[in-house]
Fold these 4 entries.
Entry 1:
Amino acid sequence: MSRRGSGAPPIARDAKFKKADRSPSASGEPTRMDDRKDDRLDGQSGGQPGCPPDGRRGFGGAEKKAVSFAKGAAGGTGGPGTGRSGPSGQAPEAEVLMESRDLYKSFQAGGERLSILAGLDLTIRKGRSVAVLGASGSGKSTLMYLLGGLDRPTMGLVFSKGRDIFRLSESELASWRSKEVGFVFQFHYLLSDFTALENVAMPVLLTGRGRAEALEMAGPILDRVGLSNRKDHRPGALSGGEQQRVALARALVMGPELLLADEPTGNLDARNAAMVNELILQLVNERQLSAVVVTHNARLAKQLDVCLELADGRLHEWKG
């Protein structure tokens, strides 16, 4: 692999590459500090998240509701996005991949407690895509962090294939994220010292696989997003649209079943935004991904299977 402009010997460069796989943002996930920063920018928090170590404590009947989900119940009741079965005689709904039930999240801001999510329900079915729209400060990013296990709810439950993700240990939760969830954020979170190909390979390195295997897995997905001729370029030498395409490739390199995209084109101009949006739609269809996409783009939202609006802490059918 070409390393133009690097004065380090090959062995030193390889060691540096391997060391980087332990970076908090190497997999594209923002650190906890980034999480809090995003919440403040979204008007949601002025201080530390005030949630108990176990997000389910003190939450009344939520544990009882967990029983049916843990047994693999496919249908939900009440609330949009639950995907209830159609009328008799119609084809059954797709299998449930993820569910959240009675999800609450609040933050302590000075002497005031801010409620962001208030009893939110959502069902995500295999191979189905969901658009989430809403005003700035409504809690869209907070919802994405909870669905991806990057933060814990104040109260409520999140299931992946019937398994309560917040009953997993920290190491188990990290393993679940790396294998089953791909993240794309408004900011690309690429590592500036590494090439596009190396950035895409980072999630593979985090699983303990070797450098050669990681690069071999990264190559095809980078080609798919149209950057085979830019694989040896570092982020600073890429345009904004190219950086976000690298981030999308990194999100998909492990073959996750769920893609979480939080305003993935929010920092791009109209031309690059349209290109990245179209690429996301293509990859979701090609790979039969489940996807949750937070967006202000009505045109993109209408091309997804379900359109919901987050308001007053809950999801509602979008009337756009």
Entry 2:
Amino acid sequence: MTNQKATAIERKELNLEALYPKISDEGKELSQQWIEKYSLAKSVFYQVGELVKTEVEKWTATTGKKTTYSEIRRHLLANDLVKEFAKMRTGPASCVFNAARADINADLDYQQRIKTWENTATEYLNLNPDLEMPFYVTAPNFHWSPYVATNDWEEQFLGCVWDIGTSIMGQSSPTVRNYSIGGGRLSRMVNYLSKNFPNFKPQRILDIGCSAGGSTIVMAMEFPEAEVHGIDVSSSMLRCGHALSVALDLPIHYHQMDASQTTFPEGSFDLIVSNIVFHELPNGIRRKVILECSRLLSPGGIMAHMEGGTYMAPTNIFQKLWRESDIHTNNEWYVGNASMEKLAVYIEEAGLSTEGSLLNKITPSSEFFEGALLIGGQKI
């Protein structure tokens, strides 16, 4: 670890409390609602897992052959326990985002800090008010929260709502919030690339669909000598990412762009990454994004997108049932048609090599969930 990287991480830990609002009474109440609803759904989750096993065994015993998800799908979806589980999972995520809104509204000092950070080093924040918002981003209301601002308050703080709300999802107490910048997926990806490509030292990095900057900040800390850029279609997300980066003294460039058709010159980047973005895209857009990544990569450059394996490449009937449930209960509209085979075709069409296991699950899988999926390729 370089001294610069160590300093950035120490600074992050030092300023972490200042990066977030105080927990409000309303925020506590809404967080508690989330915890209770999530805990109840989790208890039924394992019952559904056992039910699927039993029904598959019955089907096999009756028909004398192994079933597929398409064959048993209607039978499972008609089961009362599966229906009840779907009801439990529909909408509780809205509690965490409403809790984040409540905390932000109640903490005027936090609001001022965000505004001050946003208005500092503005040359690093490049917004495009003329950018056409893609339907596949504005329509779904992912996780029961808008992603693109619909009013002035959201323009300023919606990115913060997402950053705080997704942090609340991982907590077990309404009065304890262990916020984290970024996530483990990208750090695992960096370690994976270091092991498989030990001489790869990217100088210019692009994070696509960077949201509120959590993943972009991780890349800036992992590669302190590199020039790091993040793009997203949502101006509110970029405002939050820029504010947090300023607070952490990280010189990250944020741009309001569509990842399927950026305005960067050909060969601009050595490493292009994303964190759980691909499952939010229709298949046709996934293809366009991969083709655009190929255009933007320098010779020898690497594309490395991290995803949840259960969304993109489920391997058993329970996982496929879970994925289909998420389409309706969590507004994950585009996960149902994803597959490793399609991704491999798009990567090959883009002229990228997957040697070095660049299209691969890089963390262990379980019976219920697949490991983290690396969607990657190298410009040869």
Entry 3:
Amino acid sequence: MPQTEAVKRVNTPHDKGYKKSLSNPKEFLHFLQKYIGEEWMIALSESQLALCDKEFIEKDYEGKEADLLYKVTRNDGQEVFIFILQEQQSYVDQTMVFRLLIYIVNTLLRHFLAAGKKVRETVGFRLPAVVPIVFYNGSETWTPVRSLREYQGGYEFFGEHILNLEYYFVDLSKIKEEYILSTNTVLDNIMYCDKFRRKQELVTAVREAYRRVRLLSSQEREEFHNWVKYILLSVCDNKEVIAEEIMAQAENGDDNMAFEYTIIREFKKEREKGKNEGKVEDRIEAILELLQSLGTVPEMIEKKIREQKDLIILKQWHKFAASASAIEEFEEKLHTE
């Protein structure tokens, strides 16, 4: 999914927000029950979920870890492991089902060996069930196969006699905004905002989410606030002043006209600055190109040109370079300017 660098990099803070939120058993249970909704998930309670330490998270064939691993203790005492992978916006992994196979095999092998030879050779010994979930928040269509059977050539001939696994798949792009907003948790609000990638749409969604998170606890509000700050910094070129102003207006519930004015004003400033920076860089390269046609440009001269950010001065230097017959002549004009 090739995208601009600005959009591609939004995924990092988004993903951190998901991981932090889903590390809370209450939020993870909400995710299972609302966004997957299998009967056995609906029957779970928060007390049955325990987030596993990182040391228990196995790696795939490339050494990548699953994002989160939960141990679930069922009412009958049986243990189930649920792990979740959150896939980035800029990448559709065609090897996903094989990655999941490696995670599962490594997880089961750990338990098999930990049980000890005597235990695992008893009639009633069973490995724990391992349930994989893939959460995808990208904009491209998800094209990888959803089962291990399909990942094996000629699987149609062998029925149930070849290895198989399927994963639960949650695609954010397929979830309607109205459904996300039907409940109000930190995770819901992050998912709602995550559906918007264009700057102005994103900050408008942030404003709506701020209106909702007022009803949450102070700790939840702080968690959402920190996530929003990361997101806005990533789309505002790390300008903390802009991010803080947008957040303040969103959080305080300023009227629509004032809020829209702030967004338009700040993004217009950002665009104008970007255009000006582009003109400066173009002018610098044009000067150096002219000088290079005259010979080797001394390091100190090149450094001085590259450090100059005043477009008016650069335009004058461009004229000097265009009229000079030698680099020494250009250098002399710089010193006498």
Entry 4:
Amino acid sequence: MVGKFDIEIYNNRVHYFLTVKRNITILQGDSASGKTELIRLIGEYEANGNSSGITVKCSQKCTVLTNVDWELRLSSMTQRIIFIDETARFLKARSFAEMVRGSDNYFVIVSRDALVQLPYSIEEIYGIRNVSDSSKYKTYKKVYNEMYKIYNLTDINGALEPDLVITEDSNSGFECYKLIYGKKCEAAGGKGNVYDCIRKSDKNNTLAIVDGAAFGSDVGKIMRYLSVSGKKCVLYAPESFEFLLLKANIIDVPKAVLDETYDYADSKRFMSWEEYYTDYLIQNSQKTVFKYAKTKLNENYKSPKIIEKIKRIMPEQIIMK
């Protein structure tokens, strides 16, 4: 399934607006914020249609997946936007993650807990808010607001000069970032290790570079830790390292591929946009001098000219002069 979909759900008491554009969207919020009511409205409309007094506007069918025969029901669904409440017992099950991979559906999941088995984007974590003086009209805003996809910059004036640069990637991405930041650069060896690297560091200023397209389950823990620890750490979260290479225009890439990825990254083939960008770069660089492999960076990407192209599309606040 591909595409970007606007969803409008309302009755005479409440009105919701939501846009989904990836296979996994996470809805967060405190108790009584309206998350469960949203799920209830969709379920009631699905059961009773227009006679429910509820209106659901979306070009794709919206449905609710509950604990009852969830595997059987999910296996029969296609081209739907599936809403799941945090009370669903299967949310953290490996079998559910396996069924999400390769699914021809989008999933909107209400959960305050991190779902570590699912590679969802920092960009697709939303919290509910009212959009008028009346509490009737509700929409969803990003929980982690970004400026050039840099997080936690509020206490840093001007450019960041890190004493330590932690990279999620330990392969091609790490090789590139090490050329930019030198000996200050260390590899975490996977997204699950970034938190521990930040926590154990005794450096004054830290920059952590992660693949934002699949880092959603880890970002909350890191941001909560930084808020209470007082450590100065900035999180830079581009979609992925491969996205940076494509954005740098090292090989020719149609603008729409990067600006409207939702129309290209088919959820049946790609669990995350990170996977899509990696596949796109590998396939489209095969017959060029910039043939890409994730495990080891092609020497042609290490030339000063190419490194400068990559640095130019990174935020200037984190590029040392």
